[in-house]
Structure formats: C-alpha cells, structure tokens
Amino acid sequence: MEVLGSNPSAPTNIFHIMVKDQKRVQVIYSGYVQGVGFRFAAVRVASQYDITGFVKNLPDGNVIAVAEGSKHQLDAFLESLGKEMIDYIRDSQVEWEPPTGEFGSFGIKF
Questions:
Q1: pTM
Q2: What is the pLDDT of residue 38?
C-alpha cells in the first residue's frame, strides 16, 4: 500500500526539488567595468549556462548583473565571469534572493 506523497520518483517531488534549487543572484561589480566589454562578456559567458537575467551599466560607473537559475549554474556563471573579467573587477557585492521567474533569456539591459 502506497502512502500519498511517499513515491520519491513522482514528478511532483522532482518538480519541488527543481524549484527549490532555483535561486536569484544580484551582483554589483565595481572597478574598471564600463567601456571594457563587460556586458558583452557577461552575455557570452551566460550563454554557456542554463540561466536567465540581465546585465546593465549603472550611472555610478558600476555594472549590475541579475541572474536566475540553479545554484550550481549561477555559481559556475559567476566564477567564469569573474575569471574572464578579473583584470577589471575591483569588488563585487553579491546578494542571493528567491527567484521571480520574470526572465526568458539573459541579455543586456539599457
């Protein structure tokens, strides 16, 4: 006899695990991050991962990146972008939040 909800391979359980793993990260990069192709590099790097979101220049000279996806994919994206742009990033402020699901892809916001 099966107790409702006890089947670990049921699609609803897999769905809940997948949703639980989804995160949103907001990163503000400072340093020499504008005028060096940072946004285009972010889009190129993001295309290698299953993430959505945007990157945008800020009026104060910083760049903001907001991305959603699995924690694993987001960590890999941030690491890759950090390595590629290491010569330009002086600091980064990272905030993790629950995802909103508002993005369909990753791109540049103007």
A1: 0.83
A2: 98
Annotation says 39 is catalytic = yes
Which residues are 104's β-sheet partners?
Answer: none
**57 a catalytic residue:** yes
What is the domain range of residue 34? 22-108
Q: Exactly one of 7, 24, 44, 57 is catalytic; which is it? A: 57
Read off the pLDDT of residues 22-69 as tens digits, 9 standing for 90 and up: 999 999 999 999 999 999 999 999 999 999 999 999 999 999 999 999
Q: Tell whether 14 is covered by a domain.
A: no
DSSP assigned state of 101: -
Q: Which of 39, 44, 62, 90 is catalytic?
A: 39
* CATH number of the domain to which 102 belongs: 3.30.70.100
Q: How far, rounded to the nearest angstrom, does the alpha carbon of residue 106 sit from its chain's CA centroid?
A: 9
